[in-house]
Amino acid sequence: MQLTILGCGGALPAYGRYPSAQILNTNECSILIDCGEGAQMKMQQYKVKQNRIHHVCISHMHGDHYFGLVGFINSQGLLGRTQTLNIYAPAKLKEIIALQTEWKLPFEIIYHDLLENKYAVLFENEKLKIEAFPVEHSVPTHGFKFTKKVKLRSLLPNKLREYEIPKYFYSKLADGEDYERQDGTIIKNELVTIEGKGNKSYAYCSDTRYTESIIPYIKNVNLLYHEATYLHELAERAHERHHSTTTEAASIAKLAQVDQLIIGHYSSKYKTLEGFKEEATIVFNNVLLAEEDLVVNI
Amino acid sequence: MQLTILGCGGALPAYGRYPSAQILNTNECSILIDCGEGAQMKMQQYKVKQNRIHHVCISHMHGDHYFGLVGFINSQGLLGRTQTLNIYAPAKLKEIIALQTEWKLPFEIIYHDLLENKYAVLFENEKLKIEAFPVEHSVPTHGFKFTKKVKLRSLLPNKLREYEIPKYFYSKLADGEDYERQDGTIIKNELVTIEGKGNKSYAYCSDTRYTESIIPYIKNVNLLYHEATYLHELAERAHERHHSTTTEAASIAKLAQVDQLIIGHYSSKYKTLEGFKEEATIVFNNVLLAEEDLVVNI
Fold this sequence. Notes:
The structure is a homodimer. The first copy, chain A, is of the alpha/beta class. In chain A, 23% of the residues lie in helices and 28% in strands. Chain A has helices spanning 39-45, 69-78, 92-99, 157-162, 170-174, 189-192, 215-218, 235-240, 246-255, 276-283; strands spanning 2-7, 21-25, 30-35, 53-57, 85-89, 109-113, 120-124, 128-134, 142-148, 153-155, 179-180, 186-187, 193-195, 200-205, 223-227, 260-264, 287-289, 295-297. The N and C termini of chain A lie close together (5 Å). At the A-B interface, α1, α2 and α3 of A face α1, α2 and α3 of B.
């Protein structure tokens, strides 16, 4: 999977930082995670293939997380998109989009309502799973977990031919099974496969106050995005405003034993991000700073 | 007056061109003319003083002309704006903004509905006049004319003192009157004033098909913005889609005998603007191309 940051700013755009929006690219499709104002322009700038976006996850109904969606949808319509778009969001978003797209779009939108305080599997097929879980903010807000499912074993094409394994059995080999020929000979799985790469997972938590209630949902993910609106000297303000600090984001990463942490959603009070990485790194040793056009391979 | 282009693109953002938005700065206040997505970021980038914006004119309800307004309004609220904001727009905009600003804004918004196919004086005081007039597009659309009123005569402070003119008479001097002393002596206006600079006017026509019906409203303005979505080889497409070409915009400028023409709202099909200025200049000899961050003194 590959994550592209389209916007890393907080509620107010500032110092060139656009509001929250990200693209998660899996082999199969792309997922748009939050869609602040200007996201479609950033997608153009960063050459994101917009018709590959099949899923849109909107964390909550603060404008800096969704004001760009109506523009994206209308532009997709003007461009003649035909692929269905799945939108996972609080129920109210439907009404807002409908009011501003009264012409007949050439593609279908399927809305999936996020229910307050509820965990849900939003989508699952054999390659991808999307889950939503509650975080703690001033309005109902969800975090998301994206899992790219990778088979247990990777097939070795040369060996498959050498041992004359029939194609119908390939997926069972990928699941770790041995193959038994009609004459009873067993072809051990290790002869024709190697160890697979395992699942890859990404979790997105923004906006949220520090809360350990999210740990079970994000445990052991490869990459965690956790908002860090403030440096830790403003921990009290962060708590009051239902946001987090650098140190708090890093503490969550540590407790959840994730591989890597990426922080963002910086307050407009900060002209530069001096101190953000340093503070987080004291608590957790693998920290990235979100910034526009950053691409992270997961 | 000073015009700043925030966005000069057409329906689809393309090649770095943002959707329609402009700032007209008068001495007294600023006016936001259309507000496509991303306008608030461009205002930051170009250091526009957002709390000086007292009037917002929205030409019509196509997203590329208003999707940025809800973001601007919410940000102004977060920044603690207290000044009233006047919005002149089709009635539906009220509902769209209300649905997305459910928190209590710290400033008042006064909506003034634009009525389909009607001319109206939207605002007038002794320094500024704003008028709306119908143009010809696929949905009800208005053009706008902005007049900065300048007095007929400019006062000469030294001469006013020399001839001991009382202050209460200054505005009459500016209107060209002579002053009569109590003893009957006449102080001729020319002794204490020089010729004033005259009114300055700007007209905005976007989006519109070529229509000479707008000429009476924009006659003799100092600067005319007229959309030119296409080069003239696509005149047929322009007509079908209720847009104009370079040549058509220039023909309107010529018929209206304006001082200067500025064209914009370029289709996303054009990677560069090669040919736009050349084509328009064949018909009308004082043409500017709108581009982001262009500032025009009127």
